[in-house]
């Protein structure tokens, strides 16, 4: 999936509705299913959502015409380049430093560029991160935003999509991004756990079983 709708992360709207297994179909259960869906990964389908969006495409721009313009606040970008941007204040200075080091090590070892934006919509630099981070096909944009329930949201470049199973991202969001996890452990814990899992996955040899477990 070649980062089709990066705008998905920087626009107000409802979460992707994720089917919840079950056989009950009463109205109450249906309402509960809808509620649970909103509090599971809004990025489970990796930016197939038109309701949470960032208006950037690395393909032909498909879908952008239907999407509303997302937030673009370059003034919220740091003065100097950083691979971790926390405009929500969820991370400590020490955590940001550790994450930045992990990202640097990961990029050196694998060639993949993980970039982290911690935001609380609508306080986000939004579209401005594309040029700031020089996003390309080997980039993973990880946006941590609790606004719509699940805090973990991902956009992946085409090369990442070739090497990493799409199911990995949905399973990752389901494990560490759900509202029950980050409400109990904290937003920062969800971010750190996700980064560890991503790093482990990216370091695994590409094959039929890579990234099959969320560490």
Automatic annotation (TrEMBL):
Species this chain originates from: Opuntia streptacantha
Name used for this protein in its record: TPM domain-containing protein
Pfam families documented for this protein: TPM_phosphatase
InterPro entries (alphabetical): TPM_dom
TPM domain: residues covered: 84-199
